[in-house]
Amino acid sequence: MTIKASNALLSAQSALPDDSRNLTDVECIWIKGIQENWIRFGNAVSDRILDRRRRVISFAPDSIFAFVRWRSNDYGTIHSSISILRAVHSSESYSTLPHVRPGGEILLHQSGWPKVSQVLQLIDAVEELDLDAADAAPDYWRHVHSRISAGQVPRCYSLTRHKAYLGRKALLP
């Protein structure tokens, strides 16, 4: 590559908004009856179709999203999981997950269809309050993770809890 071409490449990269280099990419896959990875909720900033079976969905830093993974073989389901993550800034530490680049802050992670189903029902309950599940308090998803992991029933999300979260969020710099 010549110096002129590399300078053009550098200026093109610097012309990108700062957040575009901080995006969290999630690869969604759909192979009928074998593998499905999908986003249950979240506010994506970009969606790129790679081919008939794969696409990459990107999230801005501090976005919260739910990622569901399911696999099966000739004998039935071999893996199902749900993760609710917060997309991180490039300077933050993060946890890695398959199909999520670079990774994110894990607010909730459950494996096994009974637990995944329970989380999906709780997401539906949040949405029944006319709230986007991506806007719910991150602490609520941590609470759900802890309670389900301990074999207990999580408390329901409420509008009162949401208003308290918004009040705390408004006080932060």
Number of helices: 4
- The number of strands is 8
Range of strand content: 35-45%
Biggest sheet strand order reads 1-2-5-6-8
Rg is: 19 Å
Please estimate the helix content.
Answer: 25-40%
Distance between the termini: 45 Å
Low-pLDDT regions: 1-17
* Biggest β-sheet description: 5 strands, antiparallel, barrel
pLDDT averaged over residues: 89
Q: Which class of secondary structure composition applies to the elements?
A: alpha+beta
Order of helices and strands: HEEEEEEEEHHH
Shape: globular
Structure description:
There is one protein chain. By secondary structure, the protein is α+β, with helices and mostly antiparallel strands. The chain has four helices and eight strands, in the order αββββββββααα. The chain has a five-stranded antiparallel β-barrel. It starts with a helix and ends with a helix.
